[in-house]
Amino acid sequence: MQASPELKKVGQQAFEGADHLHSATVHLLRGLRIRDRESGIGPAQLSALSVLVFAGPKSLAELAQAEQVKPPTMSRIVAGLVRGKLAYMATNKDDRRAVVISATTKGINLMQEARVRRVESLARAVAALHESEIVLLRKAARIMEELSRKV
């Protein structure tokens, strides 16, 4: 893969490293997504539920922005979560015209179980690595967390 002239300014080595990281993360997440099917809800609902569980209650607009979808799309996703009793909508205490969407106990439990399945799958794969590779992986994970805040 060739970098654009604009990206060549960052350096070929950085571009190649980013390309490799992109490919590896896509494949890793694709493999983990298989475990998400066990949750019984679709990927869009699971992702929105994850935001509600781990980031807390959100307005429809905030949730749509976090998930990078339009509000009408998020309305349909939230409607499915509400029908499944995984989330509920309540009037915003500060603005009675607005609603706040929150995860229910059932939704929190489902999300935590889904996360455990993903982490267990990763842990089995990591356990097969040499100890020095695990140390390196932990360092790489910290770097990836930093990168996630910059992109």
Number of helices: 7
Shape: globular
Average residue-wise pLDDT: 92
What gyration radius follows from the Cα positions, in whole Å? Answer: 19 Å
> What is the distance, rounded to the nearest whole angstrom, between the alpha carbons of the first and last residues?
20 Å
Strand order of the largest sheet: 1-2
- SSE order in H/E notation? HHHHHEEHH
Number of domains: 1
Strand content: 5-15%
* CATH fold label: Arc Repressor Mutant, subunit A
CATH H-level homologous superfamily name: Winged helix-like DNA-binding domain superfamily/Winged helix DNA-binding domain
Proportion of residues in helical segments: 55-70%
Question: Can you walk through the features of this model?
Answer:
The chain has helices at residues 5-8, 12-36, 43-55, 60-67, 71-83, 105-127, 131-148; strands spanning 87-91, 99-103. Helix content is 69%, strand content 7%. With 151 residues, it is mainly alpha-helical. The mean pLDDT is 92. The protein has a single domain (5-149), classed as Arc Repressor Mutant, subunit A. A two-stranded antiparallel sheet has the order 1-2. α2 (12-36) packs across α6 (105-127) and α3 (43-55) packs across α4 (60-67).
Please provide a brief summary of the model.
This protein is mainly alpha-helical and 151 residues long. 69% of the residues lie in helices and 7% in strands.
